[in-house]
Each structure stands twice: as structure tokens, then as C-alpha cells.
């Protein structure tokens, strides 16, 4: 856009045209990208600069009467320990699973998700307690605790917490996700399956979707799991609008589009408005159908879903560890347009 071809046979004509009409920095639109791409690139550059500044600043104690690094981290540990959810009760988990059916695939996945979160709760609780003891001099400050001390002082997530867990660049956002995940499982334990699942809260989203396909297959006489594929459709509902659970499938929410937006009125992909890097997606209906039945009378774009908002670990195939699935989203534009723009569904846009 905005580029023209000069007319003439002399070199100076083309040289003058280049110097006067072609900008020093190309617009993202030249490469088929949205103008928001430039904003996202510059934001990423600024984040990298601030990260380097934080990593290279002195890590000694404070001076001039200010709080030291140890004081700041100790206060943070006390605050997080108060907010940290309690452990899951083994007896409550067993009785609840027996009540809702502990052999159903989705319930098996639910049990595994609680086990994974319980491991994370144990690691976080142990780190917060040991850090206070190490700062007080009661126990030795190990290398693991020292790394956690430095990370928390910079509002980052300790590496020991990220192991087998979700990615988040700040400890505050990471801890809130921990609380939200616990709330979803705790409510599921006490009141049964949710009407709409917060899919961003699953550590194994692929396993959860496979369990859904297994349940749908078992409910249909004569169906074989190998012949069942995933069918997706974006609804016009938000999660609070869902009053009844889906039949022959599930409702999920908590996904966000990057690189484009969604028109709830027309139920299709559209260009993002200026300065809007991500856009929430309404509730999605996911079900299992036989291969021959999955036919849409409109153009679709297979949009990859990533459960970790970290471009450095993003992959475009199912072999990548943070790839979940690829729902088909309705589009009036050629799918190649969204492929070129790298359109994807993410789970934590605030990260």
C-alpha cells in the first residue's frame, strides 16, 4: 500500500523516487500483516530492555532506610501464603468422584488435573515457607531458594514453580491463575461439572478434549473413536450466559484471538481495530462427529490454540508442547490472509 512504480528510463528517476517516496521502515501491511503488528513488536522490544535492566541491577540490600530485598520478599511470602488455597481433601475427592462417576473419561481427566495442581500447591507452599526461614537464618539459603528470592524480588516467577506448570512473566499474574484453577476444580468437586469449562485452566487441554470425544463416542451406538473427529462452532454467548450444559459435547471459554478480532454479530473473523492486540472469543461449542458429518457450508480457518502466551515457545504443529487443538473459525476472507498474519487463539492475553 502506498508504493508506486516510477516511469522513465534514467537511473536518477528511480533514485529520486526511492529517496522521496519509499519510507525507511516498511509498513507491516507490505507483508500482509495488521498495523497492530508494529505496536506489538515495539512493545516486545521495550519488555526486553526492561528485563535486561532488571537482571543487571545490583541485588544487594537497600540503603537509606529503605526496605531490603529480603524484607520485600518476606512480606510477599507472608501475603501469598495467606492467599494460597488449601490442599485438596483426599476423602472429599474420592467421595465426589464416586458420586459423579469415577470411570467417565472427563472425570478421570478431572482427577488428573487436581493431582497436577496439588503438586504445584505443595511446591509453592514449601518455597514460601523455606524462603522465610532462609532469610531469618534458620535454614541454609540453597541455590534453589536464592534463585526464588531473586525472581520474586523482580516480580518474576521462580523457575521451580514453572516446572510442569503454566508460563507467566509476573508472579502476581501466575499466582492469580493458580487461584483461578483451584476455584474451578473446587467448585467442580462440590457442585458437579461446570456448564462451560474454563479451558485455559487445564494443564492437559488435549487430554480433556480427547476425553470429551471418548464420552461422545460411548454415548452413540455403533460409533468407533477412530472415526470421530472434533466439530467446533463459536456461539454468541459469554460464559455467564450459559444456563445449561451442552448436549453431545461441551461449552468452553477463556480463549482470545491474536492477530484479528471476532464479529459476534456476523459470527466471523474480522480485522482487529487499531491498538487492539487481542480480542476475546465468545463461548465455543465443541463436540464429536463422524468424519463424514463434519461439513461446513462456509469457508473456515483452522486456528491453532496455544495454552501458553509465550511467543518463544510457540509452535505450529501438534508436536509442540504448548499446542492444544485447531478449531475451524468462520471467515469470509481467504484463510491464507489469517495464516500470513499468524492468527492464533491464546489463553492468557494479559501475560
TrEMBL record:
The lineage of its organism: Eukaryota, Cryptophyceae, Cryptomonadales, Cryptomonadaceae, Cryptomonas. GO terms for molecular function: dynein intermediate chain binding; dynein light intermediate chain binding. InterPro entries: DHC (IPR026983), Dynein_C (IPR041228), Dynein_C_barrel (IPR043160). It comes from Cryptomonas curvata. This is Dynein heavy chain C-terminal domain-containing protein. GO terms for biological process: microtubule-based movement. Residues 44-347 form the Dynein heavy chain C-terminal domain. GO terms for cellular component: dynein complex. Gene3D superfamilies: 1.20.1270.280, 3.10.490.20. Pfam families: Dynein_C (PF18199).
Amino acid at each position: 500500500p502506498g508504493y508506486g512504480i516510477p516511469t522513465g528510463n534514467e537511473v536518477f528517476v528511480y533514485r529520486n523516487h526511492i529517496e522521496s517516496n519509499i519510507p525507511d521502515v516498511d509498513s507491516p501491511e507490505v507483508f500482509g500483516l495488521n498495523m497492530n503488528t508494529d505496536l506489538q513488536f515495539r512493545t516486545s522490544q521495550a519488555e526486553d530492555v526492561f528485563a535486561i535492566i532488571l537482571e543487571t541491577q545490583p541485588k544487594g540490600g537497600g540503603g537509606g532506610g529503605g526496605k531490603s530485598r529480603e524484607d520485600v520478599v518476606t512480606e510477599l511470602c507472608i501475603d501469598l501464603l495467606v492467599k494460597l488455597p488449601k490442599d485438596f481433601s483426599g476423602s472429599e475427592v474420592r467421595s465426589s468422584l464416586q458420586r459423579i462417576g469415577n470411570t467417565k473419561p472427563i472425570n478421570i481427566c478431572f482427577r488428573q488435573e487436581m493431582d497436577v495442581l496439588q503438586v504445584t500447591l505443595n511446591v509453592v507452599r514449601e518455597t514460601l515457607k523455606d524462603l522465610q526461614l532462609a532469610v531469618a537464618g534458620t535454614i541454609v539459603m540453597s541455590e534453589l531458594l536464592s534463585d526464588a528470592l531473586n525472581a520474586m524480588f523482580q516480580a518474576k516467577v521462580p523457575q521451580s514453580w514453572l516446572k510442569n506448570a503454566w508460563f507467566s512473566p509476573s508472579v502476581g499474574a501466575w499466582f492469580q491463575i493458580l487461584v483461578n484453577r483451584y476455584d474451578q476444580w473446587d467448585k467442580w468437586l462440590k457442585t458437579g461439572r461446570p456448564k462451560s469449562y474454563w479451558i485455559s485452566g487445564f494443564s492437559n487441554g488435549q487430554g480433556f478434549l480427547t476425553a470429551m470425544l471418548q464420552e461422545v463416542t460411548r454415548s452413540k451406538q455403533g460409533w468407533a473413536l477412530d472415526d470421530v473427529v472434533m466439530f467446533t462452532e463459536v456461539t454468541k454467548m459469554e460464559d455467564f450466559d450459559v444456563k445449561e450444559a451442552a448436549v453431545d459435547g461441551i461449552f468452553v471459554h477463556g480463549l482470545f484471538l491474536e492477530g484479528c478480532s471476532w464479529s459476534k454479530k456476523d459470527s466471523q473473523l474480522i480485522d482487529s481495530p487499531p491498538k487492539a492486540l487481542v480480542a476475546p472469543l465468545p463461548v465455543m461449542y465443541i463436540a464429536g462427529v463422524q468424519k463424514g458429518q463434519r461439513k461446513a457450508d462456509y469457508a473456515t480457518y483452522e486456528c491453532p490454540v496455544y495454552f501458553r502466551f509465550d511467543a518463544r515457545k510457540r509452535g505450529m504443529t501438534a508436536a509442540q508442547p504448548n499446542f492444544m487443538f485447531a478449531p475451524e473459525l468462520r471467515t469470509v476472507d481467504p484463510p491464507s490472509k489469517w495464516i500470513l498474519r499468524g492468527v492464533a487463539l491464546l489463553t492468557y492475553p494479559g501475560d
